[in-house]
TrEMBL record:
Every Tetrahydrofolate dehydrogenase/cyclohydrolase catalytic domain range: 6-121
EC number assigned by the record: 1.5.1.5, 3.5.4.9
Keyword line: Amino-acid biosynthesis, Histidine biosynthesis, Hydrolase, Methionine biosynthesis, Multifunctional enzyme, NADP, One-carbon metabolism, Oxidoreductase, Purine biosynthesis
Pfam family name, one: THF_DHG_CYH_C
Name assigned to this protein: Bifunctional protein FolD
UniProt entry tagged with the keyword Nucleotide-binding: no
Assembly, per entry: Homodimer.
Oxidoreductase as UniProt keyword: yes
NCBIfam families: PRK10792.1, PRK14186.1, PRK14188.1
Superkingdom classification of source: Bacteria
Length: 296
């Protein structure tokens, strides 16, 4: 039996639709339009694509989008000054500084200069601490999208064995916190983990956030497990023509789908959910700023 393929694209569209409905209500009932400011420093091509998509989808959801594109040689002081301005701007409810930043800028310093209530990426240390202690916070978008897909697929996650492969601050660690909050028994694996294959084989929920193309084969997957593949890896695709490339995940999709109960594809799985959750976080931030009920 092959796995259910979790359609992240369709799920993300439904999340964006709900966001747009909430935005309309905020405008009609309270005269408020949520606003998201995205700051891009430099010309990293992948970041440019992300920022363009974020801006486009923000506008499509009926919100205001404020894009700030700064040259690569922008000083840390100038970037911090811009964040300060956005922190003070009442029309801006969410601030996102696109990572990575150029080497001469201290990423942590910049992230921690964002007002926590506007930190829609959920990377500020205060939000990290709030999440870790089970308090209301801004939750990082990629893990939040994964959690939504897992809940949709499985209902209650209580008591399930979850293995998260990867311990980054932006995906692995917050993912583990969210699964723990939903009463999973959580293992965080990483590059020093011994017997990774066996660890993965114990997972009812397997989340791969590594950045290594197809490193998790089907025989590491427990039969019937739910597999969430966060990895986005570009590999050569000579079958498509000379010099062509394509995207694959951290899981070997073809072999894993023969064993898993459900699995996200790459592309079309976790990726689209990330921006949808960013829009949802912006509406949440706007509601909190105005003492209005938050979307569910
Ligand atoms: P990082 O490089 O920050 O972290 C990778 C993690 O994988 C580290 O914890 C590392 O362990 C671990 N790792 C590396 N090699 C191995 C190995 N051989 N066995 C086990 N663990 C290993 O990556 P990110 O968390 O930022 O991203 C992970 C992937 O997710 C990337 O492909 C990225 O493109 C993708 N991504 C996708 C998003 C989306 O929207 N879908 C959003 C964000 C990321 P250690 O700590 O020991 O070095």
């Amino acid at each position: 039996m092959t796995a259910t393929i979790i359609d992240g694209k369709a799920f993300a569209a439904s999340v964006r639709e709900k966001v747009a409905e909430h935005v309309t209500r905020l405008q009609e009932e309270h005269g408020i339009t949520p606003g998201l400011a995205v700051v891009l420093v430099g010309e990293d091509p992948a970041s440019q694509v992300y920022v363009r998509n974020k801006g486009k989808q923000t506008l499509e959801a009926g919100m205001n989008s404020y894009e700030h594109k700064l040259p690569a040689e922008t000083s840390e002081a100038d970037l911090l000054a811009l964040v300060e301005k956005l922190n003070a701007d009442p029309a801006v409810h969410g601030i996102l500084v696109q990572l990575p930043l150029p080497d001469h800028i201290d990423e942590e310093k910049v992230i921690n200069s964002i007002t926590p209530a506007k930190d829609v990426d959920g990377f500020h240390i205060l939000n990290v601490g709030l999440l870790g202690t089970g308090q209301k916070s801004m939750v990082p978008c990629t893990p939040l999208g994964c959690l939504m897909m897992l809940r949709d697929q499985l209902g209650s996650l209580s008591g399930l064995n979850a293995v998260v492969v990867g311990r980054s601050n932006i995906v692995g660690k917050p993912m583990a916190q969210l699964l723990l909050r939903d009463s999973c028994t959580v293992t965080i694996a990483h590059s020093r983990t011994k017997d990774l294959a066996d660890v993965c084989r114990g997972a009812d929920i397997l989340v791969a956030a590594v950045g290594r193309p197809r490193m998790i084969p089907g025989d590491w997957v427990k039969p019937g497990a739910t597999v969430i593949d966060v990895g986005i890896n570009r590999i050569d695709a000579p079958e498509k023509g000379e010099g062509k490339t394509r995207l694959v995940g951290d899981v070997d999709f073809d072999s894993a789908k023969e064993v898993a109960g459900a699995i996200t594809p790459v592309p079309g799985g976790v990726g689209p959910m990330t921006i949808a959750c960013l829009l949802a976080n912006t509406v949440t931030a706007c509601c909190r700023a105005n003492n209005l009920p938050e979307p569910e």
